[in-house]
Write a structure and sequence with these properties.
Mean pLDDT: 95
Low-confidence stretches: none
Oligomer: single chain
Number of strands: 11
Number of helices: 4
CATH class: Alpha Beta
Strand content: 25-35%
CATH topology: Glutaredoxin
Structural class: alpha+beta
Distance between the termini: 34 Å
Helix content: 10-25%
Amino acid sequence: MPEQVTFKQTPMNLEGNLPAVGEPAPDFTLADGDLKAVNLHDFRGRTVLLSTVPSLDTPVCDTETRRLAKELEPYREHVAFITVSMDLPFAQKRWCVAADLPHLITLSDYRDHEFGRRYGVRILDLGLLARAVFVIDSEGVVRYRELVPEVTHEPDYDAVLQAVRAQLH
């Protein structure tokens, strides 16, 4: 059954179902900043921190993405930190340059919105992605998930980072 979130306390309906912890993460095909197709299986063998945000051009998304990028920098060799939004790939690329995060992987679900449906994070009422975090192990299994109930709030950074570190040991 699809979840709900709130946006500034207004209930919003989500499309699809969040993948359960312990189940294989749904594969996806998203566009990178050069409009090239990128798939989840491209990262097989590495832990993946998948962060979905409404738009990098908003204060909370900006703060979250910068903080996670900074916290994950020491693990960059072993952890693929991917931020997914509906922002156009050009806007994501511009944001990465402005944020001085050249190694950040940003992917866009602008084409067919299939990612949002597969991961249960597409906000039907807004046409954006809900704020959520998924930690996927090197074999492609979901090991942690957090759907942030209020879109304007940040995720539980400590829990996210603990889940990432648990995959590295």
